[in-house]
Amino acid sequence: MIKPQIPLLLISFFTLLIMLPKSTSARLHPRRDGTPPSSSSGGGDGKFCLSWRLGVEANNVVAWGTVPRECQEEVESYMIDGQYEEDLDLVMQQIFSFLNSIPLSFDSFDAWVLDVDDTCLSNLYYYKTKRFGCEPYDPVGFRAWASKGGSPAISPVLQLFNKLLEKGFKVFLVTGRDQETLGQATINNLHNQGFIGYQRLILRSGEYKGQSAVRYKSDIRQKLEKEGYRIWGNVGDQWSDLRGNSTGNRTFKLPNPMYFVP
Amino acid sequence: MIKPQIPLLLISFFTLLIMLPKSTSARLHPRRDGTPPSSSSGGGDGKFCLSWRLGVEANNVVAWGTVPRECQEEVESYMIDGQYEEDLDLVMQQIFSFLNSIPLSFDSFDAWVLDVDDTCLSNLYYYKTKRFGCEPYDPVGFRAWASKGGSPAISPVLQLFNKLLEKGFKVFLVTGRDQETLGQATINNLHNQGFIGYQRLILRSGEYKGQSAVRYKSDIRQKLEKEGYRIWGNVGDQWSDLRGNSTGNRTFKLPNPMYFVP
What we know:
2 copies of one chain form a homodimer. By secondary structure, chain A is of the alpha/beta class.
């Protein structure tokens, strides 16, 4: 009965080894060795991909075309194993807590702005076929997907939408989708997912073709303010939804590590 | 030799169980069950604390006084086990790549703005004594720490600083530290850590007392622009360093989950 305990011990040892965090020594000092910033794969792909995703969400990583190949697994796991939904929920808690602090005027000019793609409607199914953003943007493929009008609602955002209406806000949905080719499909999709009762859906009309989302959306929001609306909150999955002019009293960045809109 | 294989199999089975991700079923649909956003502890403290930290870095979680108690371990591990440094490195890569794209004028008006606390100089040692931000802000304690002038440089930022000087930028250090009480200690600390050759160190003078960092720093940057400086980049660990007016062509948010400056 002695021999069989050896593999047992060995397995326990290797199990422990595998499960230990990569570095257990506390490095309290920021690195002082004068080495330049590490290469893209840094301290292992796992850590690099976490950094990359944080960089995207904090608007440090911009104008990227595709998810780094080595991060496909990380992004896929993030999107489908629960952390994405957890992150969404936390943003919603922040929004609800802000909502309760707003002194409403009930003059029909208290407004909120919501983006559509990956804010109201999820394109996760589509991006699954694009290796979660590892494949370059495919305008024809995306148009075909969006034309079907089958994107599911992002449930916490639908709840927010209904809460906003209930409280008396005017909700403006502002999207970079092309009005001519995707207008009707978008109206249908929002309706079949329960986004009913918004003040206005604003799609990209001809005059804004080719403009960056920051400029186009800033212009739209400025026009809303000129109409007298007070934009209390502005929610989007891209920093281009939230930057520029007339951004609103508070902006809320929903997570999206799958693509970048300039 | 058959019996001993049973514990072996059992151990392998439990090892596998432990190492499997919490949920292996791909939840491609955002939650559609109509439940309200989950409570603060959400899907377990680990997930919640990741969400909270992301919320801080994306400027969704604002005006918070202390790190949530249940997140002390997560924040501590983040700061000392390497991910913080990895995240810093990634931001630096983005900055260096931006730097190389800037068309310099060599007229002495190409400028960068850097914050000081937890941008140039690390207060990690101090915050270790404050349970990594779980204890409320202690102005007396912080002043005592800062007065010593012993905060270590954040090495990648020191490298950036030297690269900026080498390229010919004018570097402005803009800090919310009180000029009267911390001016000399800050000058000494920057010097003893190698921050030598900056254009100007701007501390909070009497006229800005009590103002939010966003207003104070916006005002300083506007004055720099009025002097003719072009602010190409603006680096800070707080969103209040990066928001407001004259924010610079690009802003870079360094990670800091330990405290919030309004």
